[in-house]
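Budget justification aside, the reviewers requested a transparent look at the raw inputs and outputs of the sequence design task funded under Objective 1. We therefore reproduce one unedited record. The lines immediately below are the structure tokens for a 708-residue chain.
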């Protein structure tokens, strides 16, 4: 291995550099010298070398998480521990626990192999149960977590602590877990399988020992809830049925009774119990709330069968467009000590009822997106309102009789790109399905949202002046917006719409050449924009205030262009592609200068700030260093066991970061060629990573929809 040079090398120097031993920098990491002594030749024909990383690796901890999978039914859970409010919610295959009001501090619960589909907390707030999805016929476990320990990690951070581990893994279901819940004294846990499983299992707590597993119904069961005061009665609902279950204490024998609903046929998606346990209120896909009498004869013993058959009482008059997706009851929450039932609709409406379905019209309100989660919040041990989650990734809090307050926003779907302005670390931008968002790096809040329906934004770039945000979309168009206002400035139609075979035409990579108006907004000089498409074309555009013109169009890649980077002297640029070619171009003549070929799918690349070397990575799980002049490979460093997906270099060139498909972020010492710190926060692949200009923070974008 060799150190980077301070000036661009000649071709002779590049050829001789592979034979020179590494010179240890005075400020290099102490493990770099020992790593350089353990060099093993990897490819003698190219002169490449592989450097093994050191053993003592520091841990990178995320400071904030901007992500929420709002499509999970009742996925947002609010708890209060030590007079502090916390929320837990799913994000891909993990569960995020964070403070309800503060943005800093987050704890990740990892243990699932597929996306989390249901979340429930015990009544004392100490245990969390989660279930996951699974392919047909594959086992899908439910996992128990120490929620109290996770919240304590947020309040009192621990240095170099082991990540939270599951308390128990419950294996009884296949093809997915649809619903979980605890009874009123946390002595029994129930889990409900998905459509192809359709079983209800009862577990004795806290040992998590399985007691009984029975078929939920003839048709698909979708939801369930224990009674508030009786630990041995359970109500479940689903397609064309509502059932009341009675559990015999000690023996765990179960007896079920179908609710008599007459000719009414509905699909029940959610259920809640009134404060006195007399009624179950069910939300249906057709938009009504139905009231069911589940009262039991108080003279009867627990072991005796019910004498009162549960039956339908009434149906709400109004309907929610899109169905009732979530429902929650707050016992005695009104001023006259009457239960308040909140129903969230698929149209974003929130409607409040009493247990006998009298509507409180003055409290009705709306939120952005279909309501999928409703959880009761408490303050100093008293119920105070609701925590609300929507399928559009928004989180709200609502006090009784108040208006919803926005607590957090996030992307819906995979996040494809992230970038900082060249001279500011206070804001950054991300892009995903249908929208672009500009975030405040200090408050971790959303500043601007730019939405284009039914399209995917695949790449973004911000001019050096920060006056223009350029974006590439799945329809082949390049759109420019004002970062402060979000207004459309100009559009380049058909920027990559030349595929006559009906294939995709996405604009997958963008890079702004820092010159002219891109560097100084008061200048009238034009600036250039580089764009790459899924068809392999690389194009150079001339941009002015009134006009955009194409200067060059080349088709030398056979795969999608994944990354574009310009040298600091604005003489060359590089394009990486999935076809295994990384091409170096002359930015003045628009001709190819060199080709960096490897048996890999290139995912990312960058130039060193002094333009002396190039670093690439891809599906071969390696980070490769190249000479910028001779384009000879200097060394190869294995970055991990899976595909490397993202790279970003610091402005000083002393360090760079890498992201991989196993969700790991690594910080590398450039001259040593070793990673000195690593961390994991995503549950999916890291699509992009960006380092702030102040070199103190980096932001990662994940395929599960999270921004860390």
């Amino acid at each position: 291995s060799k150190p980077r040079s301070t000036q661009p090398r000649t071709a002779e120097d590049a050829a001789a550099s592979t034979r020179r031993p590494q010179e240890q920098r005075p400020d290099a990491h102490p493990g770099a010298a020992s790593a350089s002594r353990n060099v093993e030749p990897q490819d003698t024909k190219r002169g490449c070398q592989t450097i093994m990383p050191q053993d003592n690796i520091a841990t990178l901890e995320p400071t904030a998480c901007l992500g929420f999978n709002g499509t999970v039914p009742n996925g947002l859970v609010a708890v209060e521990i030590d007079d502090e409010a916390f929320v837990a919610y799913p994000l891909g295959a993990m569960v995020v626990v964070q403070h309800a009001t503060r943005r800093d501090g987050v704890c990740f619960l990892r243990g699932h192999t597929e996306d989390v589909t249901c979340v429930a907390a015990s009544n004392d707030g100490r245990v969390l149960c989660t279930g996951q999805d699974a392919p047909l016929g594959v086992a899908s476990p439910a996992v128990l977590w120490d929620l109290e320990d996770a919240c304590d990690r947020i309040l009192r951070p621990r240095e170099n602590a082991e990540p939270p581990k599951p308390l128990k893994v419950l294996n009884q279901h296949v093809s997915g877990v649809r619903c979980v819940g605890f009874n009123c004294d946390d002595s029994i846990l129930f889990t409900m399988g998905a459509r192809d499983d359709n079983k209800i299992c009862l577990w004795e707590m806290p040992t998590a020992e399985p007691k009984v597993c029975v078929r939920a119904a003839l048709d698909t069961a979708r939801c369930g809830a224990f009674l508030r005061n009786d630990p041995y009665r359970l109500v479940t609902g689903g397609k064309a049925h509502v059932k009341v279950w009675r559990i015999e204490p000690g023996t765990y024998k179960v007896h079920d009774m179908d609710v008599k609903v007459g000719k009414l046929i509905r699909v029940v998606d959610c259920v809640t119990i009134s404060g006195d346990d007399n009624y179950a209120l069910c939300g249906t896909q057709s938009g009504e709330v139905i009231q069911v009498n589940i009262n039991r004869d108080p003279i009867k013993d627990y072991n005796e069968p019910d004498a009162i058959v549960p039956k339908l009482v009434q149906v709400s008059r109004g309907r929610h467009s899109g169905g009732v997706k979530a429902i929650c009851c707050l016992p005695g929450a009104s001023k006259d000590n009457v239960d308040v039932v909140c129903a969230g609709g698929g149209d974003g409406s929130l409607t409040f009822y009493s247990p006998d379905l009298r509507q409180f019209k003055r409290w009705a309100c709306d939120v952005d997106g279909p309501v999928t989660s409703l959880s009761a919040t408490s303050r100093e041990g008293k119920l105070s309102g609701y925590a609300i989650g929507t399928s559009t990734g928004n989180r709200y809090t609502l006090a009784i009789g108040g208006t919803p307050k926005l607590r957090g926003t996030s992307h819906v779907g995979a996040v494809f790109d992230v970038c900082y302005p060249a001279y500011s670390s206070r804001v950054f931008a991300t892009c995903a399905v249908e929208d672009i968002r500009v975030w405040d790096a200090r408050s971790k809040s959303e500043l601007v949202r730019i939405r284009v329906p039914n399209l995917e934004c695949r790449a973004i770039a911000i001019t050096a002046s920060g006056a223009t945000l350029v974006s590439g979309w799945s329809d082949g168009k390049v759109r420019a917006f004002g970062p402060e206002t979000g207004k459309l400035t100009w559009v380049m139609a058909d920027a990559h719409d030349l595929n006559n075979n009906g294939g995709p035409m996405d604009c997958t990579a963008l890079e702004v050449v820092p010159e002219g108006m891109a560097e100084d907004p008061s200048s009238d000089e034009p600036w250039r924009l580089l764009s790459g498409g899924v068809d392999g074309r690389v194009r150079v555009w001339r941009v002015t205030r009134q006009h955009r013109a194409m200067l060059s169009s080349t088709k030398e890649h056979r795969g999608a262009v994944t990354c574009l980077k310009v040298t600091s002297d604005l003489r060359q640029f590089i394009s990486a592609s999935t076809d295994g070619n990384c091409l170096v171009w002359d930015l003045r003549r628009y001709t190819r200068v060199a080709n960096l070929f490897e048996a890999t799918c290139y995912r990312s690349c960058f130039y060193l700030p002094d333009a002396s070397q190039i670093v690439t990575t891809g599906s071969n799980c390696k980070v490769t260093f190249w000479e910028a002049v001779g384009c000879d490979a200097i060394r190869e460093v294995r970055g991990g066991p899976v595909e490397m997906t993202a790279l970003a270099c610091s402005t000083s060139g002393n360090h760079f970061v890498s992201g991989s498909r196993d969700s790991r972020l690594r910080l590398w010492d450039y001259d040593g060629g070793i990673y000195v710190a690593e961390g994991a926060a995503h549950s999916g692949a890291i699509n992009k990573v960006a380092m702030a200009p102040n070199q103190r923070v980096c932001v990662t974008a994940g395929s599960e929809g999270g921004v860390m």
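Confidence is low (pLDDT under 50) at residues 1-48. The CA atoms of residues 204 and 283 lie 29 Å apart. Computational costs for records of this kind are itemized in the attached budget.
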